[in-house]
Design goal:
Layout: H1 5-9, H2 15-26, H3 32-45, E1 50-52, E2 55-57, H4 64-72, H5 75-90, H6 96-115, H7 128-146, H8 148-166
Length: about 180
């Protein structure tokens, strides 16, 4: 490759990451082209600016992904996740193995995304959504088991979700075929 991998790695800004990729290359733990790509992504991340709340920053903002999640997620999902968190804290959701399965992977994924220092879109945390939707659905189901009033509240949230989802589409207002 031109430039060689060893030279490319040394353009990275963090010594710890340089040593890690050198070790991976030395022991052939990953293909050289993959390591070259990882180094390139880290080098380029030092040059991306970040935009959040009307402000441009030279590097990633640590709270970008939680803020983007809160802004881009639907209100019913956020409400049900809040209820789920409250139910977990109060001990009303007792299936611990399932709760760990539904909370640990998205928490780890979010932590990794927040520490990456690159804020280039919500798509980087999309793998969290299936876990969180199942968690929200489980909390809704548990609430509906306990009280009839929750059936109406959850039905209203689902209706609101359906309406807002069908009303969102990119810039085709007034466009006819």
């Amino acid at each position: 490759m031109n430039p060689p991998l060893a030279e490319s790695i040394h353009h990275m800004s963090r010594a710890r990451e340089i040593r890690l990729l050198e070790t991976v290359a030395r022991y052939h733990l990953l293909p050289e082209s993959y390591i070259f790509g990882l180094a390139d992504v880290r080098i380029m991340s030092d040059y991306y600016t970040s935009y959040l709340f009307g402000k441009i920053d030279p590097h990633g903002i640590w709270f970008y992904f939680p803020a983007a999640f809160a802004i881009k997620s639907t209100l019913p999902l956020l409400l049900l996740l809040g209820l789920a968190a409250g139910m977990i804290a109060a001990g009303r959701l007792r299936c611990w193995r399932e709760m760990l399965f539904l909370t640990i992977p998205p928490a780890v994924h979010l932590a990794v995304a927040m520490s990456a220092g690159t804020n280039i879109g919500l798509r980087h945390i999309l793998p969290m959504y299936p876990f969180l939707y199942v968690l929200a659905g489980g909390a809704a189901g548990k609430l509906m088991e306990n009280s009839r009033k929750w059936i109406y509240a959850v039905a209203a949230l689902i209706l609101f979700q359906a309406i807002t989802t069908t009303r969102v589409f990119p810039g085709v207002h007034g466009v006819h075929e």
